[in-house]
Design a protein that fits this description.
Helix content is 33%, strand content 24%. It is an alpha/beta fold. It has two domains: 2-59, no CATH class; 66-244, no CATH class. The strands form three sheets. It has a six-stranded mixed β-sheet, sandwiched between helices. The chain has a three-stranded antiparallel β-sheet with strand order 2-1-3, with helices on one face. It has a three-stranded parallel β-sheet with strand order 4-12-7. A hairpin with a 2-residue loop joins strand 1 (12-17) and strand 2 (20-25). It starts with a helix and ends with a strand. The chain binds pimelic acid. The site of pimelic acid (PML) has 12 residues, from helix 6 and strand 9.
């Protein structure tokens, strides 16, 4: 009976390790801590001196958010990627100035840790701490949805963990009413596929968004001009969500 009660009311935790995090039920904790530890120990840049894992119990019930559909475009160069992104975002009404400003941020050698927020019409950057940017946290995926996604991604010859984590994040961001679109270029010099995402567009993967060996990258969230920025940041950083469907 005890376990029945527990499974009806599982506790939710945010598990965080440098470079990875997620929202999990208590029954999954040991498995995930093992996975995260293995990932840290097998980091391509070498073994870290210390690994800090934090677990924080989340008191709110996570909101369910739909997973964005994934497509991959054909693209063979960063110039072509830029051209396609301009075309797609112009078609949904984002002014050229705003797209240009987004690229300036994304290709700047001063990469920030989190994401930048930029207003759609004026192209003005508005997050309060530009060094830090906004860190999207408290996000997880329903087990069944994850199984189906992993099966699909394993047929696509992609880095499953990278795409899965980016898709979860993009789905949380896109679900917020004031978000028009996200543009993402990985700051990993060896990872050259980026994406644009929105509720309307879905998650559009763009190969060769940058050339190999480039250190720049980041995320830009383009939002409605009159967005309440504090409320948006609170949602992105603090509201627990679980991707499903
Ligand atoms: C993809 O392959 O779908 C894009 C993944 C972007 C990863 C960005 C990151 O480094 O977090």
């Amino acid at each position: 009976q005890k376990s029945e009660v527990r499974s009806q009311n599982p506790k939710t935790y945010e598990i965080h390790i440098s470079g990875a995090e997620g929202v999990y039920e208590d029954a999954e904790i040991l498995k995930i801590v093992k996975e995260y530890t293995n990932r840290a120990l097998n980091h391509p840049k070498g073994k870290p001196d210390n690994i800090v894992i934090t677990l924080e119990q989340i008191k709110q019930i996570p909101q369910k958010v739909p997973m964005l559909p994934v497509i991959t475009l054909k693209c063979n160069s960063p110039d072509k990627a830029k051209e396609m992104i301009f075309q797609i975002l112009s078609d949904i009404g984002v002014p050229a100035r705003t797209i240009k400003n987004s690229f300036k941020i994304l290709t700047s050698p001063r990469t920030m840790r989190g994401a930048a927020i930029i207003l759609k019409e004026s192209g003005v950057r508005v997050e309060p701490d530009r060094e830090r940017g906004v860190r999207v946290s408290r996000l997880g995926i329903e087990k069944n949805t994850e199984k189906i996604l992993v099966r699909k991604l394993s047929k696509m010859k992609v880095s499953i963990t990278t795409v899965k984590e980016a898709l979860i994040l993009a789905s949380k961001v896109a679900a917020y009413t004031d978000v028009i679109a996200e543009i993402c270029i990985s700051d990993d010099p060896d990872y050259t596929t980026g994406y644009i995402a929105s509720k309307r567009l879905g998650y559009i993967r763009i190969p060769n968004i940058k050339s190999h060996g480039q250190n720049y990258g980041g995320r830009v969230f383009i939002v409605r001009e009159n967005t309440n920025i504090n409320r948006l940041i609170k949602y992105l950083e603090k509201t627990p969500i679980i991707i499903s469907g």
